[in-house]
Design a protein that fits this description.
The protein is an alpha/beta fold. The protein contains five helices and seven strands.
């Protein structure tokens, strides 16, 4: 991703689907890692979602399934494969489970078992034991403690 395409991507007031803290973290991560990627998508849908059943109109069923799918905070593609990014102000073990689940859903839906899928957790902070668990499961942990607003320190 070129500096120009990054500037265009970051020109919006808030990145799609992210709260203000997540937006701040996503922008920092993108500034640091954008050269590795050709394409970035926010709120990428994975999973089948929930079908409310045949009692509903087809359009309502489709909308319900779409709205109940899992959403990847950031999905980035580049020459090295796909990167799935989960962003939270405080990284905990819940994000580890999300990332592992997202990877399985992504590979399953895209029938791409050989494609490299990197998992990344981005936050202001993570407890030491959580950081060890992330790394032990192949998740790259990217922390920006210096960006944390005072109320989150």
């Amino acid at each position: 991703m070129t500096a120009d395409s990054l500037a265009e991507l970051l020109a919006v007031d808030r990145l799609r689907g992210l709260n203000p803290y997540e937006d701040l973290l996503a922008r920092a991560w993108l500034r640091d890692f954008h050269p590795l990627y050709d394409y970035v998508e926010f709120q990428a849908h994975v999973g089948g979602g929930i079908d409310p059943g045949p009692d509903y109109e087809v359009s309502m069923r489709r909308m319900y399934r779409h709205n109940s799918q899992k959403r990847i905070d950031v999905l980035a593609r580049g020459p090295m494969g796909v990167t799935i990014v989960e962003i939270k102000h405080r990284i905990d073990l819940a994000q580890l489970g999300q990332l592992i689940g997202y990877r399985w859903l992504w590979v399953h839906e895209h029938d791409a078992p050989a494609e490299h899928v990197e998992l990344v957790a981005v936050g202001f902070l993570a407890l030491e034991d959580v950081a060890h668990a992330m790394r032990a499961n192949g998740v790259r942990l990217v922390l920006y403690p210096h960006l944390a607003p005072a109320e989150l320190r």
